[in-house]
Specification:
Keywords: Hydrolase, Signal. With 264 residues, the protein is an alpha/beta fold. It has helices at 2-13, 78-88, 110-115, 119-135, 148-158, 177-185, 203-213, 243-263, and strands at 16-17, 40-44, 47-52, 63-68, 92-96, 140-146, 164-168, 174-175, 190-195, 222-227. The protein has 8 helices and 10 strands. The termini are far apart.
């Protein structure tokens, strides 16, 4: 008893909580009218899921990407369009509605909203979809998560539920605690795309994460790729008039795909 308390205490008290950050530019999507996602909504194990498949039907049916959205969920067109890019890169891609039909509306009160979207609300639909995918033969599952979704990629890593995880500008993590836990119990390679101007997962917290995971300390594999002159949310939405933002969004996607191809 005493022993386990001594071990557990530093994990509880030494972490910084990564605050929830709303992207500055989420009030509108930059997507031009007429652009539409090419996948479709289906129900998997009772959970609404956007499914988008590679155009070449000979894709590897043993691998899938589970895409964990930000708080704006399936109704925000940026999310299914980004999922389509994973399909274009050769992966069957599934976006479970782990927000339970209740994505944060534009201008909604995110503090009040988050009380209805705790891990207890979010985890069951997520795991219902993942277990159905495994039963369908998708033996190796990669997860990619953005902001709110970053926490869930981290949980799936910690629990060894997936084969590889990538997150961009994650929020609501405890740093370094959540990565110490991953190091203690996970076999899953981890990739992080972070933004130089993120006020949540800051460059300083990214450095703390490297202190746990970097330099070969995390044996399953760890890569962090930082994008300069961009802020929280950059991997999901980019103003087409801003070439730096466009390049960063594409760069984050490319790094995630590269990491998945290497580890899946
Ligand atoms: C999927 O469902 C969501 C939530 O109802 C909706 O906002 C979105 O437009 C639907 N997408 C497609 C491709 O039907
Ligand atoms: C948002 O919701 C929180 C919690 O319910 C509440 O304390 C806060 O006053 C609300 N903020 C606004 C701007 O309505
Ligand atoms: C949270 O859920 C409760 C129960 O369903 C509902 O009454 C309340 O309006 C919800 N709050 C928000 C901010 O959506
Ligand atoms: C991971 O495991 C913990 C501890 O068993 C559990 O509470 C949590 O719901 C799991 N989360 C996910 C996303 O699997």
């Amino acid at each position: 008893m005493r022993f386990s308390l001594t071990l557990a205490l530093p994990l509880v008290v030494s972490g910084a909580f990564v605050p929830f950050v709303e992207p500055a530019d989420h009030s509108h999507s930059f997507v031009q009218s007429g652009v539409a996602p090419r996948g479709r909504n289906v129900t998997i194990n009772g959970v609404l899921t956007y499914v988008t498949l590679p155009k070449n039907k000979k894709f590897d049916k043993s691998k899938a990407v589970v895409f964990l959205t930000d708080v704006f969920g399936l109704p925000s067109i940026d999310n299914p369009l980004l999922a389509d890019k994973f399909a274009d890169a050769g992966f069957a891609t599934f976006v479970p509605d782990y927000l339970n039909g209740d994505a944060l509306p534009q201008g909604g009160n995110s503090t009040a909203w988050r009380a209805n979207h705790t891990e207890a609300h979010t985890t069951p639909p997520l795991l219902a979809v993942i277990s159905a995918l495994k039963k369908k033969g998708f033996k190796k599952i990669a997860a990619t998560g953005y902001c709110f979704g970053g926490l869930y990629v981290t949980r799936l890593v910690q629990n060894n539920t997936i084969a590889v995880g990538s997150m961009a500008h994650p929020s609501a993590l405890s740093v370094p605690n959540d990565f110490v836990l991953a190091k203690d119990q996970s076999d899953v390679p981890v990739h992080i795309n972070n933004a130089e101007r993120d006020t949540g997962f800051t460059v300083a917290l990214a450095g703390v994460t490297d202190g746990v995971m970097g330099d070969g300390q995390y044996e399953p594999g760890y890569l962090r790729t930082q994008f300069d002159a961009v802020a929280h949310g950059f991997a999901v939405r980019a103003d087409p008039a801003n070439p730096v933002a466009v390049a960063a969004k594409q760069g984050a996607f490319d790094e995630t795909i590269k990491f998945f191809k290497e580890h899946l």
